[in-house]
Task: structure prediction
Amino acid sequence: MIAEDIAQTGNDAPSVIGFYRTASMEELIRKADAVCRQYHSNKVWLRGLIEFSNYCAMDCQYCGIRRSNSNVHRYRLTEDEIVITVQKGLEAGLRTFVLQSGEDPFFTTDRLCRLVERIKNTVPDNAAITLSCGIKTKAQFRALKNSGVDRYLMRFETSDRQLYAKLRNGVKLEDRVRALYDLKDLGYETGSGYMVGLPGETEDIRISNALLCRKLSLDMVGVGPFIPHPDTPLFSAAQMPIELAVRATALLRLLLPLANIPATTAAGTLDPMGREKMIEAGANVLMPNITPVEHKKDYLLYPNKICIGETGFECLGCLSSRVALSGKVLDFGRGNSLGRAFIPETRRGDAR
Ligand code: SAH
Result:
């Protein structure tokens, strides 16, 4: 039913963009919230985030854990530590785990495959594993899919070619977009997204960012405000207001009614009510950070990150009362993409 509904709406992107450009913030949020409730009711899915390594071979201008930031205390969880963290998450009721890291050469595709196989052997069938470890070749993505990875997250950061190349030291946007198509082709639930408020970004770029997400028919879209980190080349960039990220959330919800859209930690960092604002503008996912507390302070992509002094499990009670403010409830289920509701689930070993 849902997929048919959307198909029947036809190509409504131009009218959505027209509305976005002219509507007041209040109107935009009201409409996005209505669409969110129509397709996702009052549920907010939970994903347990495990930041398992902050080693990174890349030197992205915006990122606090970039290779040349020598002030970062580097860490890497052992396989046992990762498995134990997942088990604690399961005990707390979580059913989706997002394993994120820098582009860490230690975690080769082989190592990641073995890790995922081990995790998959210890979790129930209704648990989903998401990886977010940067770009890989299609063959590597295929091997990971065959080892049991269900979903992959990889933001394209900005849809503007020049800005992308500048922020990522000459790396090409096309390569990342191609990798996202590879993921889709292999049957992954595919997630991407971008930062909002980057230096040099315009309103047109923000609109193109959202349209690229639509073009990719993403299952998951994460957006967050760019927050300048003092130990990066962008240390003196202006901090743009949270409203930009809230508007981006609303626009994405209107363009991708079925997508899972998180209210991101960066939004909660920039504004104490940032995640609530995103939930009211159409976000339907929260990602408690269940990384062992002793390492949380070292995974600082941006400064002043919230909740680094407590376990992600302590956060669950807090998150529950936060979503209640918007009349919503946390849901511990696997929270598959609605966009795939009518496509048979890809099972382990099915990937080409
Ligand atoms: N290595 C993985 C994970 C990257 S970190 C990958 O390449 O996909 C996750 C996200 O944090 C990035 O994709 C980026 O969008 C965001 N991020 C990095 N630095 C940031 C900053 N200064 N402010 C806000 N978000 C930031």
